[in-house]
C-alpha cells in the first residue's frame, strides 16, 4: 500500500491509529496519535482508515432568500389580522369543569314569592307546606351532592317557618345548624353544615 504524509491510518493488528507525520526510510512511518504522541510503526502493519463506517459529512445546505418587493410585503402584512390574533392569545382558557364536582355551598331563599309565580288565595298553612317541601328537597339534594354548607333564608316574620325548619333539621343525622351571618341575613336565615 502506498501512504503519504497526512494520511489517516489504523494499526493492522492492534487498536489505535492516527495520522502519518513522517517516514524513516521506506518501511517505517511515524504515526502521530490523537494525544500527540508520535510512534514509529511498520508500513506493512498500517491500513488506511476506512471511511465506510463513518457518515460522510454533508455539505451545509445553502438557503436562498428570495428578493421581496417591499411594497408587496407591506400589502401582505396588512392582510394579517394582528388584532384578532392578539385577542385570541389573550383570551383565558376555558376552565375544565369535572362532572363529579359540585358546589360546596348553596343559598336557598324560601320566601313564597321566590317559589311560586302567585300565592293568591293560599292559606298560611298551604304556604308553609310549599316552603317546607322546597326546604326538604333542597336539603336532600345538598346532602346527596356532598355540599359543605347550605343557607336557608326563611325571613323573620312570626318565626313559624323557622321553627318548622329547625324541627325538621333535628330529624336529620350528620348535620348541624345555626343562625346564619347576622351581617348578611339579619335574623332571617339558618345555616346548615353537612358533615
Question: Class of the domain at 105-194 in CATH?
Answer: Alpha Beta
Count of DSSP helices?
A: 6
Q: Can you summarize the main beta sheet? A: 5 strands, antiparallel
Determine the N-to-C terminus distance: 93 Å
Radius of gyration: 45 Å
Based on the structure given, which CATH architecture of the domain at 105-194 is correct? 2-Layer Sandwich
Strand order of the largest sheet: 4-3-2-1-5
Order of helices and strands: EEEEEHHEHHEHEHE
Label the structural class: alpha+beta
The total beta strand count reads 9
Proportion in β-strands: 15-25%
Q: What name is given to the CATH topology of the domain at 105-194?
A: Ribosomal Protein S8, Chain: A, domain 1
| Coarse shape | elongated
Describe the structure.
- The protein is α+β, with helices and mostly antiparallel strands.
- Among the domains are: 8-48; 105-194, 2-Layer Sandwich (Ribosomal Protein S8, Chain: A, domain 1).
- Helices cover 30% and strands 24% of the residues.
- It has helices at residues 70-78, 82-90, 112-115, 124-144, 160-170, 182-185; strands at residues 8-11, 17-24, 28-33, 38-42, 46-48, 105-109, 149-153, 175-179, 189-194.
- The strands form two sheets. The chain has a five-stranded antiparallel sheet, with no helix packed on it. A four-stranded mixed sheet has the order 6-7-9-8, covered by helices on one side.
- A hairpin with a 3-residue loop joins strand 2 (17-24) and strand 3 (28-33).
- Helix 4 (124-144) packs parallel to helix 5 (160-170).
- The protein is elongated, with a radius of gyration of 45 Å.
- The chain starts with 7 loop residues before the first strand and ends with a strand.
Amino acid at each position: 500500500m502506498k501512504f503519504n504524509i497526512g494520511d489517516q491510518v489504523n494499526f493492522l493488528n492492534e487498536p489505535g491509529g492516527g495520522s502519518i507525520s513522517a517516514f524513516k526510510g521506506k518501511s517505517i512511518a511515524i504515526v502521530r496519535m490523537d494525544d500527540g504522541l508520535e510512534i514509529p510503526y511498520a508500513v506493512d502493519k498500517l491500513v488506511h482508515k476506512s471511511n465506510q463506517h463513518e457518515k460522510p459529512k454533508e455539505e451545509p445546505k445553502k438557503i436562498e432568500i428570495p428578493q421581496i418587493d417591499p411594497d408587496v410585503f407591506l400589502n401582505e402584512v396588512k392582510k394579517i389580522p394582528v388584532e384578532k390574533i392578539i385577542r385570541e392569545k389573550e383570551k383565558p382558557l376555558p376552565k375544565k369543569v369535572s362532572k363529579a364536582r359540585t358546589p360546596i355551598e348553596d343559598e336557598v331563599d324560601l320566601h313564597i314569592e321566590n317559589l311560586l309565580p302567585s300565592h293568591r288565595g293560599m292559606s298560611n298553612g298551604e304556604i308553609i307546606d310549599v316552603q317546607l317541601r322546597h326546604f326538604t328537597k333542597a336539603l336532600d339534594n345538598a346532602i346527596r351532592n356532598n355540599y359543605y354548607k347550605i343557607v336557608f333564608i326563611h325571613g323573620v316574620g312570626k318565626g313559624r317557618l323557622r321553627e318548622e325548619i329547625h324541627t325538621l333539621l333535628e330529624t336529620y343525622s350528620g348535620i348541624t345548624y345555626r343562625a346564619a351571618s347576622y351581617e348578611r341575613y339579619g335574623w332571617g336565615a339558618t345555616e346548615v353544615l353537612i358533615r
